[in-house]
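[step 3/7] inverse_fold.run input=structure_tokens len=270
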């Protein structure tokens, strides 16, 4: 007899059960907008310390998913836990697509980066150390005394990524963080971000419209269906890191991309 899937368990157990190595557990998630059901009784497990890319048809609810998990958007029903803890007990970071609205125009880069630390119970010295450590991990040349208007879009997004990471988040959410940037800056930021996330073992959910990016950044690609949204498939991608443009030329990448495209096309045709 086949093993019972978690969703076949009685509700009481389903809410408690999750596979080893899981960081985020989503159970029975339901979300409707004006009569449209986006998620209905949706379950998801996100592994600890891994990068999971979220990819799917237009409007299927990629942003809605990470916004609900990160607490930006209320859920209609369901439970979300982080290592069994609530969101309030978990340190998270969030990077928005639109960095222009995310960075504070009145603050220098360094003050933007430092900002979230003021909400943590730390001494001034500890805050400085935290910022220093982060800057060292990124290892980039950036004049931190500049204001956002004196920086390129890519530099501003870099600042907002650093601001999200300065609190040493257990979980990081990114909603199309590179889609407004030019290709050169995108490649540069992907490389830097990957390095820091892997070093710090941050559990990461990345929404991307770019399938190559979704795969190249990910340990696992979460492919979603059209609404009401379910998981179409989860595909592991185990290529060595650091990954760069050449990663997308490898046989394993091409295989994962072909399978992802097949699922995506099937969904879009429905
Ligand atoms: N505040 C809202 N009010 C009404 N409908 C909404 C709201 N936010 C999202 N939706 C709808 O919910 C669905 C999912 O939206 P969401 O932005 O999460 O999808 P997405 O997969 O991230 O989209 P895209 O591929 O366009 O980035 C869409 O049909 C969208 O129109």
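[step 3/7] decode complete -> sequence:
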């Amino acid at each position: 007899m086949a093993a019972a899937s978690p969703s076949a368990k009685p509700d009481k157990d389903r809410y408690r059960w999750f596979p080893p190595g899981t960081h985020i557990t989503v159970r029975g998630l339901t979300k409707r907008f004006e009569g449209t059901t986006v998620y209905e009784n949706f379950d998801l497990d996100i592994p600890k310390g891994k990068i999971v890319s979220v990819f799917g048809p237009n409007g299927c609810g990629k942003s809605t998913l990470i916004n609900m998990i990160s607490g930006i958007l209320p859920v209609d029903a369901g439970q979300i836990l982080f290592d069994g803890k609530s969101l309030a007990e978990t340190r998270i970071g969030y990077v928005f697509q639109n960095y222009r609205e995310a960075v504070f125009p009145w603050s220098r880069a360094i003050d933007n980066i430092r900002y979230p630390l003021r909400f943590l119970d730390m001494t001034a010295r500890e805050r400085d150390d935290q910022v220093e450590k982060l800057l060292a991990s990124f290892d980039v040349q950036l004049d931190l005394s500049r204001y956002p208007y004196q920086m390129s879009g890519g530099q501003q997004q870099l600042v907002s990524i650093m601001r999200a990471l300065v609190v040493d988040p257990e979980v990081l959410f990114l909603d199309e963080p590179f889609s407004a940037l030019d290709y050169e800056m995108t490649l540069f930021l992907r490389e830097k971000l990957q390095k820091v996330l892997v070093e710090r073992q941050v559990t990461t959910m990345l929404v991307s419209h770019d399938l190559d990016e979704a795969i190249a950044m990910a340990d696992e690609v979460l492919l979603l269906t059209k609404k009401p949204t379910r998981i179409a498939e989860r595909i592991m991608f185990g290529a060595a890191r650091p990954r760069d443009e050449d990663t997308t030329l490898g046989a394993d990448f091409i295989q994962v991309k072909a399978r992802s495209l097949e699922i995506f096309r099937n969904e879009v045709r429905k």
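[step 4/7] annotate
The longest strand covers residues 22-33.
The chain has a mean pLDDT of 92.
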